[in-house]
Design brief:
This protein has 27 helices and 24 strands. It has 734 residues and is of the alpha/beta class. It has a ten-stranded mixed β-sheet, sandwiched between helices.
Length: 734
C-alpha cells in the first residue's frame, strides 16, 4: 500500500452506521486508489476517539491516541487538504455519558461526566468533556462555505423512480407553534465591528458584576449578534401549547436541535420536560433533585432515576393520563418525543413529518395530525410555510419536481447559534452586556434568572466568500437564486448591508432576490412544483435545515446529497450526507445482521475528491478514478443496487460489491489510461465471475445477531468480520 503518514485523501473514522459501512467500503477504496498511486488514510473524529484523545493522562500508553480532530483542524487551513468527511455523532449529554460508560467498561480509566460539578477538579473535567459535546467537529473542519445539491444522477433517478409521499388535505390539523415574542428572534441585536476588537460578556446584578466570558477576539468586519429567550415566556408558551394540543385532538411534539445547538436547545428541551410533568415537579421537586434528575437529559433518564419510587411513578402516570397523546420516536418501545434530547432532531423530524402528509406516530401506533412545537421564531416560519403550502396545494410530486440547491454560510464557525461558548443560562436577574476593549457596550439585555442568553458571530471574509460562491453557482446554473435573509431581523439586516454592495459591484444584483425565510420557502416550493430549480443562499442553521427539508421531499433522503466545502485556503472537504437515522441502522445490524445504510453519499463525495486531487496535484490517474466512480454510482442507481430495509434482502455490503464491480468495469473499459485499464480488467472479470459466490456469502451472514464488541467504541476485528463476510470478495479486493 502507499504511504499512509501523509495520505493524498483523508477518509474520516466516525460512528454508528457510516463507520460500520466504512469497514466494508474503505478497503475497496484503498485498493483501487493504490493502483493509481493515490494513498487514502484515516483520521479518527468519532465520539469515542475524541473522548480518548481528550484524557491521555487517565490512560495507559497503549490506550492513548492522537488528537486527530486538532490535526485535521490545521490541515483544512492549507491548500493540501482533501478530506472525505462522513457524518459523526454530535453528542447530547446522554450520548456522551453512554460513550464514557462503554469505554470505562472496556478498561479505559476515564473520569465520570460531572452533571453538577462542585470541586475545581470536577469543573476542570466537565470543561474538557464540554468541548466534546454537540456539534464539536463541524466548526473545526468547516474552514469553507457549503455547496450542497443533489447530484444530477441521483435527482434523475428520483424523478424516474418517485418515492411515496403522504397525502395532504386542507382539513389537516397539523400546524407549527412558535413563541410570539420574548424569544431569540424578537430579542436579537446585531452590530458590525469597524475594527478588530476584544470583548467580554458580563452579568450586572444588584450583587455586583460577574464576568461570563472574557477575551473574545473578533477581526474587523465581524457581524456580532446577541439575544436571549425569556424562561418565563417559554414556560407559559409550552404550558399553553400542551393544553391547545389536547383541545385540538392532535399529537404534541417538540422539535429541537439539541446536538448542533448544544447549550441552548438542551435547556429548552428541559423546560418542555418540566412543563409536561409540571405537577410532578411541583410536588416532588426536592426528591427529584436528590435523585439527580436533570430534565435537560430527557424523560428516559428521569424515569430511570425514579423507577423505584412508587409515589413519583404514580404521579407521572396520573399526569400522562391528563396530557394529549405524544409524538413517538418508537411506539412499540414506548419511547416518546421527550425521551432523549438527541432523539428528535428538527432538521430530520420536520421534513419526515411533512413528507408523511403532516402525520406523526402516536402512542397507539397509528398516524395522527401533530402540533409541531418549535419555540424560537427564527426558523419556525420555514416549516409553518411549508405545511400551509401543502395544505393548500397538496403533496409534492417527486417525479416532476425541480430541485433546491444550497449555498450555505458556515466557514470559521459562522452563526454558531446556541452551541458557542458564549451561550449562558442566566443565574440571577440583571443585565447582560457585551463590552468591547475600548469600553463600548456593543449589546445589552435586561434578563431574569433562568433566561437563555447567547451570542454568535460571522466574520467578514467568510461572508464575502459565501456571496462569491453564490454568484459562481448562479452563473454556472442560471437558476433562480434567493438569499434567505429577513430585513426585519437584526442579524440578517447586517448581512443584507454586506451582500447588496458585493452583488452590485459584480454587476449581478438583478440575478438575485432577497426574501425572509417564510416568503423564500413559499417561492422555492412554487418554483420546484413547476419543475424549475432554485438556489437557496442561507446562513448556517438554515443550511442545516434546508439541506434535509428539500432533499427529503425531492429524494426521500438527505443522505444522497453532494456536499462540497470549498475551503477558503484552497483545499477541499467533501461531506457525505446526513446521519440522523444511523442509530436505528446499528440496532438493526446488531439484532439481525442487516445494515440498511446507503453509501451513495460516500460514492458521490469520493468522485469529487478524486477529481479535486487531479486538479490540485495534476494527477491524471485520479481523474480517471473519479470519472469511473461516477459511472459506478450511475450503475448502482440504474440497476437498483441500493440497500433494502428488510433482513434477507440485499444490504449495504451487497451495494459495496456492486459498486466495486461497476467501478472496476468502468476502469477496465476506459481508454484514457491503458495501465489502469490493464490492471482492472482481471479484477472486473473476477468480480463478475464471483457474483454468485459473493452474493451467497453475503446473504448467509444475515439473520443472526451481530457482535460488534461495542456501540460507540466497537472492536475493529469484530466489525471487520461482520462487515466483510465474503471470503471470495475479500480475496479479490485484498
Amino acid at each position: 500500500m502507499s504511504d499512509q503518514s501523509t495520505p493524498d485523501i483523508i477518509y474520516t473514522k466516525v460512528d454508528e452506521a457510516p463507520e460500520l459501512a466504512s469497514a466494508s467500503l474503505l478497503p475497496i477504496i484503498q485498493s483501487f486508489a493504490d493502483a493509481a498511486g493515490v494513498s487514502v488514510g484515516t483520521k479518527d473524529i468519532s465520539l469515542a476517539g475524541r473522548i480518548i484523545a481528550t484524557f491521555p493522562e487517565a490512560l495507559t500508553a497503549e490506550q492513548q491516541i492522537n488528537d486527530d480532530l486538532a490535526l485535521l483542524g490545521e490541515l483544512v487551513k492549507t491548500p493540501e487538504a482533501n478530506v472525505i468527511k462522513l457524518p459523526n455523532i454530535s453528542a447530547s449529554v446522554p450520548q456522551l455519558v453512554a460513550a464514557i460508560k462503554e469505554l470505562q467498561s472496556q478498561g479505559y480509566a476515564l473520569p465520570d461526566y460531572p452533571e453538577t460539578p462542585s470541586t475545581d477538579e470536577e469543573k476542570a473535567v466537565r470543561a474538557k468533556y464540554d468541548t466534546i459535546k454537540g456539534s464539536a467537529v463541524n466548526p473545526v473542519l468547516r474552514e469553507g462555505n457549503s455547496d450542497r445539491r443533489a447530484a444530477s444522477a441521483v435527482k434523475k433517478f428520483a424523478q424516474n423512480n418517485p418515492h411515496r409521499m403522504g397525502e395532504w388535505t386542507a382539513q389537516s390539523k397539523t400546524r407549527v407553534a412558535a413563541m410570539d415574542g420574548n424569544d431569540f428572534f424578537s430579542n436579537e441585536t446585531s452590530a458590525t465591528l469597524d475594527g478588530a476588537a476584544t470583548a467580554k460578556i458580563v452579568l450586572e446584578t444588584a450583587g455586583g458584576e460577574t464576568v461570563l466570558k472574557d477575551g473574545i477576539k473578533y477581526p474587523a468586519g465581524t457581524v456580532v449578534d446577541a439575544t436571549f429567550m425569556s424562561a418565563k415566556a417559554l414556560d407559559a408558551f409550552l404550558a399553553d401549547e400542551i393544553e391547545k394540543t389536547k383541545a385540538e385532538g392532535t399529537l404534541f411534539s417538540l422539535h429541537m436541535k439539541a446536538t448542533m445547538m448544544k447549550v441552548s436547545d438542551p435547556i429548552i428541551f428541559g423546560h418542555a420536560v418540566k412543563a409536561w410533568l409540571a405537577p410532578v415537579f411541583e410536588q416532588y421537586g426536592d426528591k427529584l433533585a436528590a435523585l439527580g434528575v436533570n430534565p435537560n437529559s430527557g424523560m428516559g433518564d428521569l424515569l430511570a432515576r425514579v423507577k423505584d419510587d412508587a409515589d413519583i411513578m404514580a404521579a407521572i402516570e396520573a399526569v400522562n393520563a391528563q396530557r394529549p397523546p405524544m409524538y413517538m420516536v418508537n411506539s412499540d418501545k414506548g419511547i416518546t418525543n421527550l425521551h432523549v434530547p438527541s432523539d428528535v432532531i428538527i432538521d430530520a423530524s420536520m421534513p419526515a413529518l411533512i413528507r408523511a402528509g403532516g402525520k406523526g406516530w402516536g402512542p397507539d401506533g397509528k398516524e395522527a395530525d401533530t402540533n409541531c412545537v418549535i419555540p424560537d421564531n427564527s426558523y419556525a416560519p420555514v416549516y409553518d410555510a411549508a405545511i400551509e403550502f401543502f395544505k393548500a396545494n397538496g403533496k409534492l410530486n417527486p417525479a416532476t419536481a425541480g430541485t433546491v440547491q444550497n449555498i450555505g454560510l458556515m466557514a470559521q464557525k459562522a452563526e454558531e447559534y446556541g452551541s458557542h461558548p458564549t451561550t449562558f443560562e442566566i443565574p440571577d436577574a440583571g443585565t447582560v452586556k457585551m463590552i468591547l476593549d475600548d469600553g463600548t457596550v456593543l449589546h445589552s439585555h435586561a434578563v431574569e434568572a433562568g433566561d437563555i442568553w447567547r451570542s454568535a458571530s460571522a466574520r467578514k471574509a467568510p461572508i464575502e466568500d459565501w456571496v462569491n460562491l453564490a454568484i459562481d453557482r448562479q452563473k454556472a446554473t442560471g437558476y433562480r437564486a434567493i438569499f434567505w435573509l429577513d430585513a426585519a431581523r437584526a442579524h440578517d439586516a447586517e448581512l443584507i448591508a454586506m451582500v447588496k454592495p458585493i452583488l452590485e459591484a459584480k454587476g449581478v444584483a438583478d440575478k438575485f432576490e432577497i426574501m425572509a425565510p417564510r416568503e423564500a420557502t413559499i417561492a422555492s416550493l412554487e418554483t420546484i412544483t413547476k419543475g424549475e430549480n432554485t438556489i437557496a443562499i442561507t446562513g448556517n442553521v438554515l443550511r442545516d435545515y434546508l439541506t434535509d427539508l428539500f432533499p427529503i421531499l425531492e429524494l426521500a433522503t438527505s443522505a444522497k446529497m453532494l456536499s462540497i466545502v470549498k475551503l477558503m485556503q484552497g483545499g477541499g472537504l467533501f461531506e457525505t450526507g446526513a446521519g440522523g437515522s444511523a442509530p436505528k441502522h446499528v440496532q438493526q445490524l446488531q439484532e439481525e445482521n442487516h445494515l440498511r445504510w446507503d453509501s451513495l453519499g460516500e460514492f458521490c463525495a469520493l468522485g469529487e475528491s478524486f477529481r479535486f486531487l487531479a486538479d490540485s496535484k495534476g494527477n491524471a490517474k485520479a481523474r480517471v478514478l473519479g470519472d469511473a466512480v461516477d459511472a459506478a454510482t450511475q450503475g448502482i442507481l440504474d440497476h437498483d443496487r441500493s440497500p433494502s430495509r428488510k433482513v434477507g434482502e440485499p444490504d449495504n455490503r451487497d451495494s459495496h460489491y456492486w459498486f466495486a464491480r461497476y467501478w472496476a468495469e468502468a476502469l477496465a473499459a476506459q481508454s484514457d489510461d491503458a495501465d489502469l485499464a490493464a490492471h482492472f480488467a482481471p479484477i472486473a472479470k473476477a468480480l463478475a465471475d464471483g457474483e454468485a459466490a459473493i452474493l451467497s456469502e453475503l446473504a448467509a451472514a444475515q439473520g443472526k445477531p451481530a457482535d460488534l464488541g461495542g456501540y460507540y467504541h466497537a472492536d475493529p476485528a469484530k466489525v471487520a468480520a461482520v462487515m466483510r463476510p465474503s471470503a471470495t470478495l475479500n480475496a479479490i479486493i485484498g
